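Work through this protein:
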Amino acid sequence: MKHVNDKQIRDYDAVLDAKYGAPGTPERTQFEEEAYSFYSGQIIRDIRKEAGVTQSELADKIGADKSYVSRVERGEIMPSVGTFYRIIAALGFRVQLTNQ
């Protein structure tokens, strides 16, 4: 099915509610986890490329194999918090938490 942009402003929460159920439902939780995995993978891929590091080089630095790094970047798996920090540090970056 092709999506046509009708240029209407939508309440994104309402769209997600209609498609995946209310926050806290198993379907919505699964969607959110998959979305976070995808987004985290994109961040890692982007900074890896910015750092000029290959997937194999990153894998060597964190003690993993290239296929692990590839699956993380594709959002197929979510690294643990510890592994996420090791990946970020291996690429010469750091995570900074701030309040809004």
Summary: The chain has five helices and no strands. Residues 26-50 form the longest helix (25 residues). The mean pLDDT is 92. The chain has one domain: 12-90.
